[in-house]
Write a structure and sequence with these properties.
With 382 residues, this protein is α+β, with helices and mostly antiparallel strands. The protein has three domains: 154 residues, Gyrase A, domain 2; 59 residues, Alpha-Beta Plaits, CATH 3.30.70; 82 residues, Elongation Factor Tu (Ef-tu), domain 3 (Beta Barrel). The protein is 20% helix and 31% strand. It contains nine helices and 21 strands. The protein has a six-stranded mixed sheet, sandwiched between helices. The chain has a six-stranded antiparallel β-barrel with strand order 16-19-18-17-20-21. The protein has a five-stranded antiparallel sheet with strand order 5-8-9-4-10, with helices on one face. Strand 12 and strand 13 form a beta hairpin. The chain is globular, with a radius of gyration of 21 Å.
Length: 382
C-alpha cells in the first residue's frame, strides 16, 4: 500500500477528494491535469484496458472541473461560448460541445450538463475555461453568475458498470439514456449521475457534491462492485484512441478548428444565435481546411507506450503532418494513431511513414474510430 505523502509537487497542485482512496487502492503514479493530480498508473496499462472492456473500472476524474453557470441569462451565455446549437437542449440532457475563440480555434471540448432551466455545468477537459468565461461575461451584458462548485466526478466504465449502478441505486437507473443525467441519493450522498464517460464503453459519471466525503464514496462504489469484478483504474489511452476520442492539448488545441477534426456536426453556422468565432468559422467553412485529422496504422513491433512527443508524418521523405496520439492496441494487434496531416495526404489507404525519433516506420491512412466505428457500445439501450 502506498503512502499518500509520497506524492507531491507542492500545494499549488490540488488533490482530489478521492486522492487518498486511490493511493490506498494501488495508484502508483500521477500526472497533472487542470492543476490537479490524476491517477495514471494502477499497474500494467494493458491489464487496465482489459479490465475496462471485459468488466468495469472506477476512475478518479475529479480533474474534470466544473464551470457552473447560473442566472437569468445562463442559457444565452452558454450558447455564446459554443458553435453547437443548444436551442433544443432539455433540462436533464448532456451534450458534447466545443468552446471556440474568435479565430475559431478550440479552447476546450467539454461535456455540458443542463441541471435546470438556468443552471449548467461545463465539465472540462484540461484548460482554464473558468477564466475565459469570466472574461467573456464581463463584457457580455448578460446576467450570469460563474463559479467553480464543490463538484468532483468519478467515472464508472465498462460492460459491468450497469450492474454496479443497479446494486447502488436500484433497477430504475437502467432507464437513464445515453447523454442524460439524473439526481440520486445514496446513504446521505446527494449525487448527480450522467450516462457519459471518456472510455468508448458503456459507463457513468458520478458527481460528488461534498468534497469531504470522497474516500467514503469511493469505498462504497468499490464494495458494491466486488461481485462484478470492478477494479480501480485510470482512463485508458488504448481504448480512447481505439474509439477516436480526442485528448485536448494532444489532438486539439487553440490552433485547431472543428472542421480539421471532422466535427462539423458540432458547428451550426446558420443558427440565429451568435457565438464566439462564428465569423471565423464561416470563413474557414467557405475556403476549406489545409489539414485534416486521420487515423493511421503504424507498422513495426508493438509500441511500448503512448507517444510523448508529436512524431513527424512523412510522405516521400517530407514532413506532411504529425502524430498526435499513438498506442499499441492488444485487441487489434496493431499500432494505431491519430494524426493531423495536410489535406492531400488524408486519403484512405494512402501509404505514409512516421518518424518515432528512434526509427522511421511505415504507416497507412485508415478510418476512425478503429473499433466500434458506429459507437454501438456506448449508445445502445441498456
Amino acid at each position: 500500500m502506498n503512502n499518500p505523502s509520497d506524492f507531491g509537487f507542492g500545494t499549488q497542485i490540488r488533490k482530489s477528494p478521492f486522492f487518498d482512496a486511490t493511493v490506498r487502492w494501488g495508484a502508483k503514479d500521477f500526472s497533472v491535469y487542470n492543476h490537479m493530480y490524476i491517477p495514471r498508473d494502477f499497474g500494467n496499462p494493458e491489464e487496465n484496458f482489459w479490465n475496462l472492456v471485459n468488466t468495469a473500472i472506477l476512475c478518479d476524474v475529479a480533474v474534470e472541473r466544473q464551470v457552473e453557470v447560473t442566472g437569468p441569462d445562463a442559457a444565452e451565455f452558454v450558447q455564446r461560448l459554443t458553435p453547437r446549437n443548444l436551442s433544443t437542449m432539455a433540462v436533464g440532457q448532456c451534450k458534447y460541445i466545443l468552446i471556440t475563440n474568435a479565430d475559431g480555434g478550440i479552447l476546450n471540448d467539454p461535456i455540458l450538463l443542463r441541471l435546470a432551466e438556468n443552471h449548467f455545468w461545463i465539465s472540462l477537459a484540461d484548460s482554464d475555461i473558468l477564466l475565459w468565461a469570466q472574461g467573456v461575461a464581463v463584457n457580455s451584458g448578460l446576467d450570469v453568475t460563474l463559479r467553480e462548485p464543490d463538484v468532483s466526478p468519478l467515472q464508472l466504465q465498462g460492460p459491468r458498470s450497469t450492474d454496479v449502478m443497479v446494486s447502488l441505486f436500484g433497477p430504475e437507473i437502467q432507464q437513464l439514456k445515453y447523454y442524460w443525467l439524473t439526481r440520486v441519493e445514496l446513504d446521505g450522498f446527494e449525487l448527480v449521475v450522467s450516462r457519459t464517460g471518456w472510455s468508448s464503453e458503456v459507463g457513468y459519471e458520478i458527481y460528488l457534491q461534498d468534497g469531504s466525503r470522497g474516500g467514503e464514496l469511493w469505498d462504497k462504489i468499490m464494495a458494491a462492485g466486488q461481485p462484478y469484478d470492478l477494479k480501480p483504474g485510470h482512463t485508458s489511452s488504448i481504448r480512447r484512441i481505439e474509439g477516436g476520442m480526442l485528448s485536448y492539448h494532444a489532438d486539439a488545441d487553440n490552433q485547431t478548428n472543428p472542421f480539421e477534426l471532422g466535427l462539423d456536426r458540432l458547428v451550426d453556422l446558420e443558427m440565429d444565435a451568435d457565438f464566439i468565432g462564428k465569423s471565423a468559422l464561416k470563413a474557414i467553412s467557405a475556403t476549406g481546411v489545409k489539414r485534416k485529422q486521420v487515423g493511421l496504422i503504424i507498422g513495426g513491433d508493438p509500441l511500448t507506450g503512448p507517444n510523448t512527443t508529436f512524431w513527424p508524418v512523412l510522405k516521400d521523405g517530407k514532413t506532411v503532418g504529425k502524430v498526435t496520439s499513438a498506442v499499441y492496441s492488444p485487441r487489434l494487434e496493431k499500432n494505431i494513431a491519430l494524426a493531423m496531416v495536410a489535406t492531400p495526404c488524408a486519403e484512405l489507404d494512402l501509404p505514409l511513414s512516421v518518424d518515432t525519433s528512434t526509427e522511421v516506420r511505415p504507416a497507412m491512412v485508415t478510418r476512425t474510430p478503429f473499433y466500434d466505428p458506429k459507437k454501438r457500445i456506448t449508445s445502445a439501450s441498456l
